[in-house]
């Protein structure tokens, strides 16, 4: 069994400019990829194809990456890493319904323990304006993990969905929690500024 496999981890830095930028600007500048280790593939070829898909995604070659991920999935159809990567791949191509399908499958296969898929699902619900589902899935993650990296992103994605649903007070509570507990983590300073701006707009619209 081969260990140390690549998974793309979408962070909140995608949020602030996505709606105001061209697809090329967003893909090249605003997404963040994080390589995580520790997931396992039973088949070496499936692992290699997943890593090829990750490398292609990092360079913005999303359609080519999708082919590699799907080939990997044919070999190991129940691998949550590949399913989650396909979800992110579809998200970056603005194919939100397909992204949701792959994220949900990854989470189902993992018995709701593959929280990276869930927090990315929460962000996808935000862009789909399905804010209640976004709040539900991120709340589940918050209540079921102690991983600080996952938690910081889950709180950020939940705050976004609260803002989208005009729950400004609850978004403010999450933002204060992020400031108190995750300020020194990667991208969190940016996330705080972004959420502050969105929260101020939420308050202005809902005095």
How does this structure look, described?
It comes from Cellulophaga geojensis KL-A. This is Tetratricopeptide repeat protein. The protein is built from 11 helices and 2 strands; from the N terminus they run E-H-H-E-H-H-H-H-H-H-H-H-H. It has one domain (2-205): Serine Threonine Protein Phosphatase 5, Tetratricopeptide repeat (Alpha Horseshoe), CATH 1.25.40. The protein is an all-alpha fold and 207 residues long. It has a two-stranded antiparallel ribbon with strand order 1-2. The chain is 70% helix and 2% strand.
General form:
elongated
The largest sheet, given as strand count, sense and whether it forms a barrel, is: 2 strands, antiparallel
Low-confidence stretches: 1-5, 9-38
Overall number of domains: 1
Total number of beta strands: 2
Termini gap: 57 Å
Number of helices, where a helix is a run of at least 4 consecutive DSSP H or I residues: 11
Percent strand equals under 5%
Proportion of helical residues: 55-70%
Rg, please? 17 Å
Mean pLDDT: 82
CATH superfamily: Tetratricopeptide repeat domain
CATH class wording: Mainly Alpha
Tell me the strand order in the biggest sheet.
Answer: 1-2
- CATH level-two architecture: Alpha Horseshoe
Structural class by sheet pairing and helices:
mainly alpha
N to C succession of SSEs: EHHEHHHHHHHHH
What name does the CATH topology carry?
A: Serine Threonine Protein Phosphatase 5, Tetratricopeptide repeat
Keywords: TPR repeat
TPR repeats: 46-79, 80-113
Organism: Cellulophaga geojensis KL-A
Protein name: Tetratricopeptide repeat protein
């Amino acid at each position: 069994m081969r260990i140390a496999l690549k998974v793309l981890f979408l962070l909140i830095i995608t949020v602030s400019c996505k709606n105001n930028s061209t697809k090329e600007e967003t893909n090249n500048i605003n997404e963040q990829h994080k390589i995580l280790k520790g997931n396992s593939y039973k088949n070496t070829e499936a692992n290699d194809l997943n890593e090829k898909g990750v490398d292609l995604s990092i360079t913005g070659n999303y359609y080519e990456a999708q082919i590699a991920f799907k080939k990997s999935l044919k070999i190991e159809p129940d691998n949550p890493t590949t399913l989650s990567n396909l979800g992110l791949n579809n998200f970056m191509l603005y194919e939100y319904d397909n992204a949701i399908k792959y994220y949900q499958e990854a989470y189902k296969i993992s018995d709701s323990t593959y929280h990276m898929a869930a927090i990315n699902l929460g962000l996808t619900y935000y862009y789909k304006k399905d804010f209640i589902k976004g709040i539900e899935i991120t709340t589940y993650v918050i209540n079921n993990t102690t991983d600080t990296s996952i938690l910081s992103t889950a709180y950020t994605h939940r705050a976004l969905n609260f803002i989208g649903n005009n729950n400004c007070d609850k978004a403010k509570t999450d933002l204060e929690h992020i400031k108190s507990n995750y300020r020194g983590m990667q991208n969190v300073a940016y996330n705080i500024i972004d959420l502050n701006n969105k929260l101020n707009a939420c308050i202005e619209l809902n005095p």
